[in-house]
Amino acid sequence: MAVLGQLARRLGVSESWVRDRRCAADLALASLGDAQLVLLRPRRLMNANGRSVAQAAELFGLTAEDVYLVHDDLDKPLGKLALKLGGSARGHNGVRSCISCLNSSVSPPLCPALGRVVGRGALTLLTKAA
């Protein structure tokens, strides 16, 4: 959610989030060059957020190839970002839900690294200020 918030700020739509009950999510619409972007913050539990993603994709006429998933990856160094084209959920239940509901594994997940806090069970997320 922090990554989407930062993206919304940089696109100038951070105050434009609206709740959409049809897909059980908050949506913000933005332009980037010639592209129209739909930013989606599901309001479901992570393990069921694929339903929100699939319903929004249908609502906006998007295919699985048009969807970018932003999710955490504890196995990456803190502050790193990875773009992965397709593949498996690698044990991430939220990604698994999206793959299942979109009936495709072609969505390229965008994975900001949270990093593990050594010696504690807590997680840390760092974001750069705009």
Automatic annotation (TrEMBL):
GO MF: peptidyl-tRNA hydrolase activity; tRNA binding
EC top class, as a word: hydrolase
- UniProt entry tagged with the keyword Acetylation: no
Q: Which PROSITE patterns match?
A: PEPT_TRNA_HYDROL_2 (PS01196)
Q: Which UniProt keywords apply?
A: Hydrolase, RNA-binding, tRNA-binding
> InterPro entries from the xrefs?
Pept_tRNA_hydro (IPR001328), Pept_tRNA_hydro_CS (IPR018171), Pept_tRNA_hydro_sf (IPR036416)
- Protein origin, superkingdom: Eukaryota
User: One Pfam family name from the record?
Assistant: Pept_tRNA_hydro
Query: According to the UniProt entry, what is the EC number of this protein?
Result: 3.1.1.29
Q: What Gene3D superfamilies would the database entry show?
A: Peptidyl-tRNA hydrolase
- Record's family? Belongs to the PTH family.
Query: Which PANTHER family does this entry report, sorted A to Z?
Result: PEPTIDYL-TRNA HYDROLASE
State what protein this is by name.
peptidyl-tRNA hydrolase
Provide the species name: Phyllostomus discolor (pale spear-nosed bat)
